[in-house]
Task: structure prediction
Amino acid sequence: MRATAAEQTQTGGLVLLSLASWAIPGAGHLWLGRRSKGLVFLIALPLMFALGLKIQGRLFPFDMSEPLVALAALADLGIGLSYFLAGALGYGTGDVRAVTYEYGNAFVIVAGLLNLLVVIDACDVAMGRK
Amino acid sequence: MRSHLLLLIVFAFFVSLVFAVITKDDLREQVRFGGLLFAGFVATALVLGWLMFPFPL
Result:
């Protein structure tokens, strides 16, 4: 059964919303008019990510020979454009000798995973589930 | 910033904040749930830390 034009438009909008929400944490909620929630995500998640990099967290590479490293890279990527920006600016090399290395990784990875939850929440709101 | 306790508290704060804002819509409920989550994170970490204290690595 073919989707109607309205359904296709709705699906397209949802994809665009998800992409925006992923690229810039909180953008999806701001788009949907949930300003306070969007602002909290917009400030808290990049801050958590930046703090993780500051305390020697690492941006993991997509190394498929090391499944756990690849999964960590996937989680890192969850933060959106900040991931590419940090990489381009030379952050996220990580120093395994640093006392805070593991904490830094936890901050960076969890910031990415939390942003993915925020994307799902934005989709739920857009679809009228919340 | 090298204090493990401080980093644990900051981590718990961010995670609690995001979870509270995602799951609750009302500000009072967000504060209540977020506070509960934050206290749970910190208390659990402290209790587990004390329980693991006798075990050598």
Remarks:
- The first helix of chain B runs from residue 4 to 23.
- The mean pLDDT of chain B is 93.
